Amino acid sequence: MLVIGDDGLARPTWAATDPLLRDYYDTEWGMPVRDEQGLFERLSLEAFQSGLSWATILRKRPAFRTAFDGFDPDRVAAYDAGDVERLMADAGIVRNRRKIEATVTNARATVALREDGGLADLVWSFRPPATPAPASYDEVPTQSAESKALAKALRGRGFVFVGPTTMFALMEAVGIVDTHLIGSHRRGTSGIWATR
Q: One GO molecular function term (predicted)?
């Protein structure tokens, strides 16, 4: 369902009232991210979001960026047990040991992947030939053949917390698929997919 805002723009209900979510929807969600650090950050935040609301993660994103050295893969890959304990004591982030350790593991996998073209090339290689065109939330998929294949490929490269649903959310967030509802002012704005 779309809601027409005071500015006359149509947004989904999740982005219609909270200013933080509205700004994220209007300026960032679904826009192409093709750099290694940007993709590593979003991959990490999608893992932390598992079981929580995206609003919670978005509110904590500045603290996450500080705690994880701006999601610089080289710096995070060098973290040791002491860094994990430091992060577990940081009330500004989600203090989940498995997710913190997964972020370190994924940083190391990201660095190793540079030998074969890098994280961005791998993730974007799973762009589907067509994008969904949902008219309602019931029509928005939660995973796809491509997100399943991406999850499998990443797991094969040593990544963790990269299930097909999480990878579909990543693909939505970074513009690989466009699941903005038909009628939304953001549909087709990524420049990747034609407006439909």
A: DNA-3-methyladenine glycosylase activity
Separation between Cα atoms, residue 143 and residue 169, nearest integer Å: 8
Q: Would residue 113 count as lying in a domain?
A: yes
Q: How many structural domains compose the chain?
A: 1
Q: Cα(44)–Cα(39) distance, rounded to whole angstroms?
A: 8
* Ordered DSSP codes for 32-44: ---SHHHHHHHHH
**Residue position matching structure tokens 């047990």:** 81
State the residue range of the domain holding 78: 35-173
Amino acid at 175: G
Specify which residues 11 forms β-bridges with.
Answer: 3
**Binding site: what residues are annotated?**
180
Q: Where are the alpha helices (DSSP H) in the chain?
A: 19-27, 36-49, 54-67, 73-77, 81-88, 97-113, 119-124, 145-156, 164-173
Report if residue 26 sits inside a domain: no
Do the domain assignments include residue 141?
yes
What's the pLDDT tens digit per position in 92-130? Answer: 999 999 999 999 999 999 999 999 999 999 999 999 999
Q: Which residues are catalytic, by number? A: 24, 46, 54
pTM exceeds 0.85, yes or no = yes
CB hemisphere CA count around 50 (13 angstroms): 22
Q: Residues annotated as binding site for Zn(2+)? A: 180
CATH number at residue 134: 1.10.340.30
